[in-house]
Amino acid sequence: MGVLPPVKEAEAPDFTLRDLTGKPRRLAEFRGQVVLINFWATWCPPCRAEMPAMERLYQEMKSDGFTILAVNFAETAEQVEPFVKELRLTFPILLDEEGQVVRLFRAFSLPITYLLDRHGMVVGRAIGAREWDSAEAKHLVRALTAR
Q1: DSSP-assigned letters across all residues of the chain
Q2: Which residue segment(s) compose the domain that 53 sits in?
Q3: pTM for the predicted model, two decimal places
Q4: pLDDT per residue as tens digits for the range 92-116
């Protein structure tokens, strides 16, 4: 699957971004859940390719203390909303219009995904698209939600 552990254990930097309704969402509010933070853009073909698998994983695992935060890079709600509706995405979509969080996480290629444990520690990173609903991905998320 290609999720790499961090070079050194580190807490994910906290941030606040607005969702598609304009509501501010802070990473810290998701503490206690396993969080998959995915950096993406509507113009990125690999991002589009992996989104349906992310939605399937989210639907299967959200009741087990798992969530996905999809951080859109440098686009507006008006640009993002048709994409989200077309793919029927239900997990939180956050807008990083200025690229501040992208820089904070050093997410300099898209898509890039960070996996956080319930304590907000970065436990994995994946560069490029992945099959997030694969047996391996589900096993990884189940192991983290069981802790």
Answers
A1: --PBPPSS-EEPPP-EEEETTS-EEEGGGGTTSEEEEEEE-TT-HHHHHHHHHHHHHHHHHGGGTEEEEEEEES--HHHHHHHHHHHT--S-EEEETT-HHHHHHT--SSSEEEEE-TTSEEEEEEES---TTSHHHHHHHHHHHT-
A2: 10-145
A3: 0.96
A4: 999 999 999 999 999 989 999 999 9
